[in-house]
Write a structure and sequence with these properties.
Layout: E1 2-6, H1 14-17, E2 19-20, E3 24-28, H2 33-43, E4 46-50, H3 58-61, E5 63-64, E6 68-72, H4 77-87, E7 90-94, H5 101-104, E8 105-107, E9 111-114, H6 120-130, E10 133-136, H7 145-148, E11 149-151, E12 156-158, H8 164-174, E13 178-180, E14 194-196, E15 200-204, H9 209-218
Parallel strand pairs: 1-15, 3-4, 6-7, 9-10, 12-13
Antiparallel strand pairs: 2-3, 5-6, 8-9, 11-12, 14-15
């Protein structure tokens, strides 16, 4: 699997502003066409301009796999309709007091781990929309499970301070092997600096050689 280095808004935090599955890479409204095309070419996906709750922090606010997308209730009806029309994905809306869903939930096509702060009725929507099994668990002591884990259907990475029992339980639900890793030169909050689908991985441009080696090991079948 190819691994590329790229930047968004002249910074390495590509996972904050963008989100991808195998078919689409979502980029903020107003993002440069040339940059969107390059990113889409790396991920072998179609780029889609979008906003979530009238913000450009798409990776922070939405959750995505190849079955569906989760959006916070702060989204406008126009944003929800736009997502349905342009992608044909299942769209679920979570009405919770915590709106940064991408920070709280990590998924692939097989499973997901969600923050214990997510209410049980919202967990059912996650399962139904994305077609996956979901567990609720802190990761490395943090509620922000979505920040701490990034996985596709081949492999994944997890916050380096996660204990072995938690790595095993999260690996079991995602049904992939997870490797402890950092991104962008030592950042442990990994989803801030990575995009991964089942075709390629794109990381922030501050990611160093040893980290690329860890990613290669993690995302190799």
């Amino acid at each position: 699997m190819d691994i590329y280095k790229y930047d968004v808004y002249r910074g390495p935090n590509i996972g904050i502003y963008t989100k991808t599955n195998d078919d689409f890479v979502f980029v903020p409204n107003g993002f440069a066409d040339t940059k969107a095309k390059t990113l889409a070419s790396y991920l072998k996906a179609e780029y889609v301009f979008a906003s979530v709750a009238n913000t450009r922090v798409l990776g922070t606010m939405m959750v995505l796999n190849n079955n569906g997308v989760l959006l916070p209730s702060l989204c406008s009806q126009w944003e929800i309709d736009h997502m349905k029309k342009t992608t044909k994905l299942n769209v679920g809306v979570l009405d919770t007091k915590h709106n940064a869903l991408g920070n709280l939930i990590a998924v692939n096509d097989r499973g997901g781990v969600a923050s214990p702060k997510i209410p049980s009725e919202a967990v059912k929507i996650i399962k139904d929309t994305l077609g996956i099994e979901v567990i609720q668990k802190k990761v490395a002591g943090y509620h922000q499970a979505g920040v701490m884990v990034c996985a596709n259907n081949i492999g994944g990475i997890i916050h380096p301070e996660t204990d072995e029992d938690d790595i095993k339980s999260i690996s079991d639900v995602l049904k992939v092997k997870l490797e402890p890793a950092t991104i962008n030169g030592g950042i442990p909050y990994i989803s801030s600096g990575i995009l991964a689908n089942n075709k390629a991985v794109v990381v922030g441009n501050m990611t160093n050689g040893p980290e690329i080696m860890m990613l290669t090991r993690a995302f190799t079948e």
